[in-house]
Amino acid sequence: MLFMKVPRKKAEEARRKIVSGGIYAEGYKAFHDEQHVYFPVLHAVEGYGTIEMEGEKFERVKGLRELLAGILTDEELENLVTSYDLVGDIAIIEIPDELESKQKQIADAVLKTNKRLKVVAKKLGRVDSEFRVRPLKAIAGENRTETTYVEHGCRMRLDVAKVYFSIRLSNERKRIAELVKPGEHILALFAGVGPFPLVIAKKQPNTNIVAIELNPEGVRYMRENVRLNKNKNITVESGDAREIVFGKYRGFADRILMPLPRSAETFLDVAFAGARDGCMVHIYNFAPIENPYADIEKRIAEEAKKAGAKAEIVNRKIVRPYAPKIVQVVVDFRIKKA
Ligand SMILES: C[S@@+](CC[C@H](N)C(=O)[O-])C[C@H]1O[C@@H](n2cnc3c(N)ncnc32)[C@H](O)[C@@H]1O
Fold it and tell me: Using CA positions, which residue lies closest to atom 12 of ligand 1?
C-alpha cells in the first residue's frame, strides 16, 4: 500500500484534496509521526512524497453512532473509537475509562452492527511481555474468546485472550510463503499458533518446517492447527527457541523466521547457529520511522562477526505502522558461513 507523506501543518488541506479526488484508499488507517501525516492513497500525487508499506485495514462500525445516540452524550460519542480488530467472529474493542459504566450498551450496539460477529471482547490492561498476550474479556454476545480464523486457505483455532495473534501480518506471511522453494528446511522461531508455518506449508508442502513456541497455549493451538490443516511437514517444538536450536537444530536451516519484533535481535546468535551456509533470515523489528534499519542492521553485522560468518542484506521494508513514530520493519539477510 502506498502512503502519501504530508507535513502535519498541511495535512488537512491534503486530506481534503485526496478525498475529493477519489485518491484516498478507503478502509485503511492514516497514521502520523511528529512531523508528518501518512495518508493511504491509491496512487502517488505530484508534489508529495510517498512510502510503501502494509496498510492497516479496519472494520468501520457502521451505524454505531445512531445506535448509541440516546445512550451516550455527543462528547462521549466523539471519544468513542468506532473501529475494531476482527479475529474470526470476535470484535476486539477499546473502551475509554470514562465510558466504562456504559461498556455493556456500547458492546451490545457493536454486536448489532455486523451479522458475522458473535463476540465482542474488550481490551484490558497491558500486553504481557514474554508471550505478547493482551488480556481480554468477552463483554457481549457469546461468553468465549476462542475462535477460528481463516487466512490464505489455512484454518486456525486460537484464543485471543491466551495467545498472541495479529491479523496485520497476513500479507507478510504470503510474501514469505512465495519465497520458499521446494525442499527447504525452515526454522519458524516464535511461531505462536502457527500462522507462518501453516501458510508456508500450504503453499509449499515439500518442505521440512520446525516451529518453536514458548507459550504452552500457543503450542497447544499450533498442534491443533497442524492437525486441522492435515500438515505432514511441520514439527512443533515446545519451549525456548535458544535451547531448542542449540540443542537439536544447529546447521539445520535454509530459512529462518524471527517474528519477535521487540527483542528478536537478542536471538541473532541463535539464527547464526541454526543456519546452513546460504540460509535466508527474516527478522522483524520495531524501529523509529525516520531511521528504521540502522540499529537492526548494525546488530546483524556485529553478530555475523562474532559467529565468524558474513551477512548480506537482501531486502528491507517497512511492514506496518505500529505506534506514533514507530514502525514494524523486516530485514531479509543471507548468511554466508564458508
Ligand atoms: C509477536 S509473537 C508472533 C507469533 C506468530 N509468529 C504470529 O505471527 O502470530 C511472538 C511469539 O514468540 C513467543 N516467544 C517469546 N519468547 C520466546 C522464546 N524464547 N522461544 C520461543 N518462543 C518465544 C511468544 O510466546 C509469542 O507467541
Answer: 190
Burial class (CB in 10 A: 0-12, 13-18, 19+), 195: buried
CA-closest residue to ligand 1 atom 1: 260
- Check whether domain 2-52 has CATH 3.40.50.2300, yes or no: no
Give the number of the atom of ligand 1 that is nearest the alpha carbon of residue 262: 1
Q: Is the pLDDT of residue 59 over 80?
A: no
Q: How many angstroms separate the alpha carbon of residue 213 from the centre of ligand 1?
A: 6
Take atom 19 of ligand 1 and give the residue whose Cα is closest: 240
How is residue 160 annotated by DSSP?
T
Segment 82-111 shows an average pLDDT of: 88
Among 186, 190, 238, 283, the mutation site with the greatest number of ligand 1 atoms within 8 A of its Cβ is: 190
Superfamily of domain 59-144: Met-10+ protein-like domains (3.30.300.110)
Of 17, 57, 14, which Cα lies nearest the Cα of 321? 57
Q: Looking at the domain 166-336, which fold is it?
A: Rossmann fold (3.40.50)
Q: Tell me if residue 152 falls in helix, strand or coil.
A: coil
C-alpha cell at 19: 478525498
C-alpha cell recorded at residue 122: 474488550
pLDDT tens per residue, range 98-125: 888 999 999 998 898 888 899 999 999 7
- Substitution candidate for ligand 1 out of 260, 267, 269, 283 with most atoms within 8 A of CB: 260
List, chain by chain if needed, residues with CB within 6 Å of any ligand 1 atom.
130-132, 164-166, 169, 190-192, 195-196, 212-215, 218, 240-241, 259-260
Q: What percent of the chain has pLDDT over 70?
A: 97
Whole-model pTM: value is 0.85
Q: Strand, helix or coil at 69?
A: coil
Residue-wise pLDDT for 305-324, tens only, equals: 999 999 999 999 999 888 88
